[in-house]
Amino acid sequence: MRLDLSSKRARKLIREHDLSEEEILQIVASARINLATFDPEYRTNVTQIAEDLHKSRPTIYGWADRALAATIQSLRNIRTGRPPKERERHVDNDV
User: For 29, what's the count of Cα atoms within 13 Å in the CB-facing half-sphere?
Assistant: First the structure.
């Protein structure tokens, strides 16, 4: 599997997360499989991905399933909108 890691964003993510080449390949394989699952216009060959990475098809699908589960969990926990402002509480001491 040939990757182009020259983009500024790729270099930034690799640096921030201290990604190894193996981790990058796993991320790309998972993304390709999950994209092909949900986008009928995107095609990928899981057998070829498995062969390129010297892994089994079940291993590749396992990566993709775990990546998708983590993505879903993350998206469900994102808070949208502006955080509420803290209101100052004035305690009336003149009782």
Answer: 28
Task: Tell me the C-alpha distance between 29 and 45, whole Å.
Answer: 10
The answer to whether 28 and 22 have CB atoms below 8 angstroms apart is: no
Instruction: Find how far residue 25's CA is from the centre of its chain.
Output: 13
- pLDDT digit string, tens, across residues 29-60: 999 999 989 898 998 999 999 999 999 999 99
The pTM of this model reads 0.70
Within its chain, how far is the Cα of 93 from the centroid? 53
Residues 6+ positions from 64 with CB-CB distance below 8 Å? 29, 30, 33, 34, 37
| Three-class secondary structure assignment of 11-50 | HHHHHHHCCCHHHHHHHHHHHHHHHHHHCCCCCCCHHHHH
E strand or H helix at 11, and its extent? Answer: helix 8-17
